[in-house]
Amino acid sequence: MRLTEFHELVRNEFGQMRGDALLHDHVLLDLDGRTAAQAIEAGQEPREVWRALCVEFDVPPVRR
């Protein structure tokens, strides 16, 4: 998954403002206690970060 696709998925699922806040403010235990933005900056694959967000926020499987 490309980073642009990741950002599009976040925006479509959570909305622009909430999605931005989730990426920068919400700490995910599945990402070693980092935010999604920190995990991506550290080199984690966007697909893995997207999956962690989906699990954390109970995104239905059809939209994952």
TrEMBL record:
InterPro entries attached here? DUF3046 (IPR021408)
The protein here is known as DUF3046 domain-containing protein
User: Can you name the source organism?
Assistant: Rhodococcus chondri
